[in-house]
Amino acid sequence: MALPQHLSGDVVAINAFIDKFDVFLLDCDGVLWSGDHLFEGIVETLEFLRSRGKKTVFVTNNSTKSRPEYQKKFTAMGIPSDVEEIFGSAYSSAIYISRILKLEPPKNKVFVLGEAGIENELRTENVPFIGGTDPSFRRDMTPEDWQGIADGSLLDPEVGCVLAGLDFHVNYLKLSHAYQYLRRGAVFLATNVDSTFPMNHNFFPGAGSISVPLINMTGQKPVALGKPSQAMMDAIEGKFQLNRERTCMVGDRLDTDIKFGIEGKLGGTLAVLTGVNKQADWEAKDAAAVPAFYVDKLSDLRAAAQ
Amino acid sequence: MALPQHLSGDVVAINAFIDKFDVFLLDCDGVLWSGDHLFEGIVETLEFLRSRGKKTVFVTNNSTKSRPEYQKKFTAMGIPSDVEEIFGSAYSSAIYISRILKLEPPKNKVFVLGEAGIENELRTENVPFIGGTDPSFRRDMTPEDWQGIADGSLLDPEVGCVLAGLDFHVNYLKLSHAYQYLRRGAVFLATNVDSTFPMNHNFFPGAGSISVPLINMTGQKPVALGKPSQAMMDAIEGKFQLNRERTCMVGDRLDTDIKFGIEGKLGGTLAVLTGVNKQADWEAKDAAAVPAFYVDKLSDLRAAAQ
C-alpha cells in the first residue's frame, strides 16, 4: 500500500488537498484537544476551513455525553459549533435503534450500560430504556438479586435490546442483568468498542471494557455503532446527505478513525500525529490502516490561509 | 479419539475403574452439588471411596472462598471433609505468588480484584496486598482519582502483581487501578478465567469477566491459576505428592475439569452428567476434551459397594 502524503509545510499540497473535499469529518480527542487541553491554532484552523466553504462534522466515539452536552465542551474550549454538526456514538446508537432496529412492543425496551449521554439520546428518539444511571442499579448484589435474576422474576420482560457503552458505574449487578437479557435473546449493541478511554494524558477503561465481559460470557459480538463501524457512517451519510467522494475523515487513530474513512470509501483520510498513533504505526507491516494524507498537527493546514 | 466408557450400572467396570486409582480429584459444583442443592447419595459415595482406601481432593476454581470458608460449605452440606483436602484457585494463586513468583521488596505487593477468599489465602502465605475488599476501593471515581491514577500519584509503587479473581464488587475505580499497574509492568495473574459462575441454577459473570477487560486493554493474557491451568496441577502434585498415573480427575466440564486431567497426564478422567456438559459435547467434532470414563451421576459409583 502507498504511504501517505505528508502535507505539513507544503502550501501547494495543502491547497490541493483542501480543494478535493466539501466535508471534513473530524475526530475530537487527539485531533482538536487532549482531554481538557485545546491544541494551539485549532479554533483558527476550523474557521479557515469553514471560510473556504467546507462543512465540518465532529465524529466522536465518546458515548458518555449527548450532543448538547458535548457541545458544551466545544463552547468551554472556545470552539464555535452547532449541535447539529456533532455526531457521537450515543446518538448513532439511538438512531440505529429507533430507525433501523425499530423494536416493537412488548419487547421494545433497551437495557443500558452507560451514562446520561446515552439516556438523553435515547429519550430524543423516544426509545424506552431501563438501567443506565438509575440509582437502583448502582449497588451491591443482594440474595434477592441472585434469586430473582436467576429465575427471571427481577427481569423486565419488555427488554429486547442491551446497549453497552462506557459506564463509569459498571458493577456486577448490571453485568448480571445484561447477561440474562442477552441469554433471553436481546439484541446486543455497543455504542463503540474502544478498549481504552483517553483522559488526563493517560488511558482508562473504554466502552469496550464494558461489553467485553458480555462477549466473553455469551460468545456473541455486539453490533458496534461507533467508529470504525459502517453503521455509524451510514447514519452520518443519511443525516448530512454527504457525497462520500468529497468527504475526508480526520483522526489520530488508525484502527478507528482512518479505518472508518477507508472502509466508508471516503474520498480521503487525514491522520494527525497529536494523538494515539504515529508514523511508525502505519509503516508497520500489520498496520490497522494507512491514511492517504498526514499532518504533524491539524493547525498545519492553516499554512494555506496565508 | 476413542469415546469414553460408560460405567453407570456396570459393577464389574466400576470396580475395575476404582482399582486403577489411589487419588480422586473432584470438582465440586455440578459434581457434588448444584449451588446449594446437594445431589443424592454424594455423602455415601465419598464414604465408599474413602472406605476403599482412596484419597479425595476437592479442586475448585471458585476463588471467593478460602479453604476454611469452603470447608464450612462442605460441613453445611453434611459432607465430612478436611481443610487439607480442599484446593481452591485462591489458594493455588497464593502459593504460586509466594513460592514460584517470589516477588521481592520493594515491588512485592499484589493488587487484588476479588473477594475475601483471595485475601485470606494471601495472608496465610504472608503475601502483602492492597485492593480486594478494602472499602476505600468500593466507590465512584472522583476528579482526584482521574488525576492521581493518570499521573501515578495515587498508585502504590510497591505493587508488582495484579491478581484478578471473581469480584462481586468490581467497579471502574478498581479496573482503572489494575490497568495502570499492568501498564507499569506488574505481573498479570488470574485465579481462573471461567467466563461464567454457576449460581441458583443459572449463570452469572465469572472470574473471567473481571480479567477480560484488562486482557482487552493491555493485549496481555494473565497466568491463570485455576483449572485447566497446569500451574494448579503442579501445585496439587507438590502438596499431595500424588502419583499422576494413579490419579483420576472427576468433573462436569470438558473445557476445565476434563482438559485439566488430560493435560496433566493423569491416569484417567471421569465425566459426570449432573453439570454443564452432556454426552453430545464430547461427541461433537470440536469437543474441548474427551473423558476416559463417564457416569450419569457420581453416586452411580456406589453400585460397586453392594
TrEMBL record, chains A, B:
Mg(2+) binds at D27, D29, D252. It catalyses: 4-nitrophenyl phosphate + H2O = 4-nitrophenol + phosphate + H(+). It is an enzyme of class 3 (hydrolase). It comes from the Eukaryota. Its EC number is 3.1.3.41. One of its GO terms (molecular function) is metal ion binding. InterPro entries: HAD-like_sf, HAD-SF_hydro_IIA, HAD_sf, PGP_euk. Keywords: Hydrolase, Magnesium, Metal-binding. The active site is at D27 (proton donor), D29 (proton donor). Pfam families: Hydrolase_6 (PF13344), Hydrolase_like (PF13242). Substrate binds at K227. This is 4-nitrophenylphosphatase.
